[in-house]
Each structure stands twice: as C-alpha cells, then as structure tokens.
Amino acid sequence: MHHSITLTDGELTVRALTETDIPGLCALAADCADELTLMGTSPSDAAYYQSALDAPDQQPFTIVVDGELAGSTRYGDIRAAHAGLEIGWTWLHPRYIGTGINRRMKLLLLAHAFETLDMQRVQLKTDNLNTRSQRAIEKIGAVREGVLRKHQRRQDGSLRDTVMFSITADEWPEVRARLSSS
C-alpha cells in the first residue's frame, strides 16, 4: 500500500518505499545475499517490493542512513479493526548491523504504531534458525509467544518454523523507556 509516513532520528530516516527506491534496494540486497537466505522471498528481487506496494495490508519502508540506502522494513498484516499490525520483512546491509540502527528504527516504528496509529498489539516474527534476529527482537523487549510449526517456505523451498513475538500497548511504555535509554 502506498503511504506517506516518514520517521526520523538524526541521520536515520525511515520513509515510505517508492518505486524509484526498488532498483537501489535490489542492488544493495544482492550485495549481501548470503546474509538474507532465511527470508522467505529474496529482497534482491523487484517483485518483493512491488508486492508490498500493491498489498492493501502492508506499508513498506525504505531505511536511509546519512542519505544512503541501508535496507527495508514494513508494517504488514495491518488489522485496523483489531488494532494490530506486524513489523517485519526487515533487512539491513551488514555494514549497519551492530550500529544501533535496527534498535532506533524499531523505536520509530513502534512509537508510530502505538502513539499515532493507536495499535494495541505489534507482532514480530522470524525464522527459528535466525538466532541473531531472535536476540534482536528479545533485546527490544518483545515477548516470545511461541512457535508456528512448518509455517512458511524459505527461499530454498524448505519449510521453516516461525518464532512469534509481540509487544502490547500495556507493555509499550516500559519498552519505549528501555529503547530510549539504550
């Protein structure tokens, strides 16, 4: 879904994905394809982004650091009637991993979801083999809810188990304080 959300924190900008971003993001993802094999669909494929722009329940974002493309993320599975959404499909070029960009980006997205969109639940999911992603999700304060077994296909065709996490509106003030002080 096309949208106009732009969130900023210093040199970090999380803004609406545009069709003009797609070639640059594909090239950036191709540069680190080995890091992205656990994603269901390769972010080096233009269809990955176009499908997000076309989906009525997704709001894709481009992550920009110091004016340079750094990766992509999105709000997905937006359920306005149930006051919930998912933050996911996130990838960053390896040069930004461990720099705090992911934590700051999640703070921006979570703040917007809870404080502007008035969501009551934000969920995050990851491949059970992606332990780095699981640690990052736990570090921001999300609660591990369980595992969806044989949930979806990986790029290689194998079925993955998916670890489900969430943050609720009741938990948000504590999560916000933790993320803001890091």
CATH class: Alpha Beta
CATH topology: Aminopeptidase
SSE-based structural type:
alpha+beta
Distance between the ends: 32 Å
Strand order of the largest sheet: 1-2-3-4-5-6-8-7
Estimate the global geometry from the Cα principal axes.
Answer: globular
Tell me the helix content. 25-40%
Q: Radius of gyration in whole Å, from Cα?
A: 15 Å
**N-to-C SSE series?**
EEHHEEEHEHEEH
Number of strands: 8
Largest sheet: 8 strands, mixed
The CATH superfamily is known as: Gcn5-related N-acetyltransferase (GNAT)
User: What is the domain total for the residues?
Assistant: 1
Mean pLDDT metric: 94
The appropriate CATH architecture is 3-Layer(aba) Sandwich
Helix/strand layout:
Blueprint: E1 6-9, E2 12-16, H1 22-31, H2 46-54, E3 59-65, E4 68-79, E5 84-92, H3 101-116, E6 121-127, H4 131-140, E7 143-153, E8 159-168, H5 172-181
Parallel strand pairs: 5-6
Antiparallel strand pairs: 1-2, 2-3, 3-4, 4-5, 6-8, 7-8
What do you see in this structure?
Helix content is 30%, strand content 36%. With 182 residues, the protein is α+β, with helices and mostly antiparallel strands. It has a single domain (6-181), classed as Aminopeptidase (3-Layer(aba) Sandwich). It has an 8-stranded mixed sheet, sandwiched between helices. Strand 3 (59-65) and strand 4 (68-79) form a beta hairpin. Helix 3 runs antiparallel to helix 5 (172-181). The longest helix has 16 residues, at 101-116. The mean pLDDT is 94.
Gist?
With 182 residues, the chain is of the alpha+beta class. The protein is built from five helices and eight strands, in the order ββααβββαβαββα. The chain has one domain: Aminopeptidase (3-Layer(aba) Sandwich), CATH 3.40.630.30.
